[in-house]
Amino acid sequence: MRSLPASLKQMTDITSLAFLFIAFLTGIAGALQTPTLSLFLTTEVQTRPVLVGLFYTGSAIIGIIISQMIASYSDKSGDRKMLIIRCCLFGALGCILYAFNRNYFLLLTVGVVLSTFGSTATPQLFALAREHADKTGREAVMFSSILRAQISLAWVIGPPLAFALALGFGFKTMYFSAAIAFVLCSVVVWYALPSMPKVKQTTNTPIQAPRQNRQAVLLLFIVSSLMWTCNGMYIINMPLYLISELQLPEKLAGVMMGTAAGLEIPVMLIAGYYAQRLGKRRLMHYAIVAGLLFYIGLFFFTSPWILLVLQLLNAIFIGILAGIGMLYFQDLMPGQAGAATTLFTNTVRVGWIVAGSLAGTVAELWSFHSVFYIAAAMCLVATLCLLKIKVA
């Protein structure tokens, strides 16, 4: 009888390790695709900057619609485990389409739909992790922070690897690698993650809507969307800015993204440790200030080593937003883990909608560098909105 608790503890540890490994795999799949997308569209599909921005905008709009439908279903009924598996397999199909197709409109429609399912695996994974943590008595904030750190770890490896594969072996090899990551992820999910099916609800009340703190959730949605817009404009324009305007090596973009992601890991862990003591709202303030200083720094510095040093500020900006922002939504929406997590994820997509429109248009009319001024202004607006939130 004494072996039973030990076995249960071992199973819990194995399950937790599986969560971490799957988060890393989904992070790798995304990190192989996102950093090089603007370069792929420009060089392989041969589109203008404004169409590159339109692609990001269209992707984000489709992503919001699909992910909200999945979130609504997952919170009412169904098994998140099976949803994650299906999303990963659709994501793999999307990668294969990107590997072989160079038709802009086919990529913008079918390709984006498949890719959206792939990216939706991540919020569902976090929602399942939150439910698993609550059920097993784990400390949810720290567990989610460590889980999110795995995605940052993937982004340490992913962007440099993506540029190396794309520039050295071609985009076909790069997208095949992402497809393999998705397939492997689905296999691990099938064998290692717990099933937590829900009893189908008979009520017709829309579960996506926040049941509590609606004004705070709305303001937090605006804050997060503005912050992700800044990051989106940076990711879209930064590779093209380095190559076209600064005449710097192409691989520097991947190194910069990997450096920021590596620095995000200790930022997330430290933020998760101090979240209870300092409060999530104060940490979000720190993140915005770091972001403001980062984009101001991009106004004045063009030296590669200074650009790498500035990634510390970028890491604080994104590390706190990605780790604490999601938990802030979950705290404001108790009992709605799937809806809260997907709502946070949709702030990323809203950010891409605005970022795609602005980044492409500004680059077409002025320069790639001009978007950093807009990003700094958005940080100031986000600060004002965050001050209006009274729930810490």
TrEMBL record:
It is a multi-pass membrane protein. Keywords: Cell inner membrane, Cell membrane, Membrane, Sugar transport, Transmembrane, Transmembrane helix, Transport. Pfam families: MFS_1. It comes from the Bacteria. Residues 11-392 form the Major facilitator superfamily (MFS) profile domain. It is found in: Cell inner membrane. The chain crosses the membrane at residues 49-71, 83-100, 106-128, 175-193, 216-236, 256-276, 283-302, 308-329, 341-360, 366-387. Belongs to the major facilitator superfamily. Set transporter family. This is Sugar efflux transporter. It comes from Limnobaculum allomyrinae.
